[in-house]
């Protein structure tokens, strides 16, 4: 069982920054790959960033490379998404996920709105 709670979303001007946090429950945080997906109105949910169970192999969607950074803090059972140089097209609900060998668990999401 995994419970994920996102925070840090909000309204920001284009070019600004936000840091999203995802707090995970339990004692197995370090065994899961973690990531972030987003879903804009009328669009499908797409993965934007992921990081392995060991904290290595960060991966990013082309649309966010060079602007977003994913990291994890094992002591705090938290994964972060630092978002810089935000664009209006980044507006979406951002969902944290935890990936085991067989299952993917989702948080409830946090809204990010970028105004032009």
Structural class of the secondary structure composition?
A: mainly beta
Distance between the termini: 40 Å
Count of strand segments: 11
Order of helices and strands: EEEEEEEEEEE
* Unreliable parts: none
Question: Using only CA atoms, what is the Rg?
Answer: 13 Å
Provide the β-strand percentage band.
over 45%
Count of helical stretches = 0
Seen as an oligomer or otherwise, the chain set is: single chain
Average pLDDT, rounded to a whole number, is 94
What is the global morphology? globular
The proportion of residues forming helix, as a percent range, comes to under 10%
* Main beta-sheet annotation: 7 strands, mixed
Could you explain how this protein is built, in words?
With 116 residues, the chain is mainly β. Helices cover 0% and strands 51% of the residues. Strands 2, 4, 5, 6, 9, 10 and 11 form a seven-stranded mixed β-sheet that branches. It has strands at residues 4-7, 10-13, 18-24, 33-39, 46-51, 59-60, 68-73, 78-83, 92-99, 104-106, 110-115. It contains no helices and eleven strands. The chain is globular, with a radius of gyration of 13 Å.
């Amino acid at each position: 069982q995994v419970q994920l709670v996102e925070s840090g979303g909000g309204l920001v001007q284009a070019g600004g920054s936000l840091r999203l946090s995802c707090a995970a429950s339990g004692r197995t945080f370090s065994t899961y790959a973690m990531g972030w997906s987003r879903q804009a109105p009328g669009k499908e949910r797409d993965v934007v960033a992921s990081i392995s169970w060991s904290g290595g192999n960060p991966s990013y969607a082309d649309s966010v490379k060079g602007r977003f950074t994913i990291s994890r803090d094992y002591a705090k059972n938290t994964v972060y998404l630092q978002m810089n140089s935000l664009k209006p097209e980044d507006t979406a609900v951002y969902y944290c996920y935890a990936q085991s060998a067989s299952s993917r668990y989702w948080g409830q999401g946090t809204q990010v709105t970028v105004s032009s």
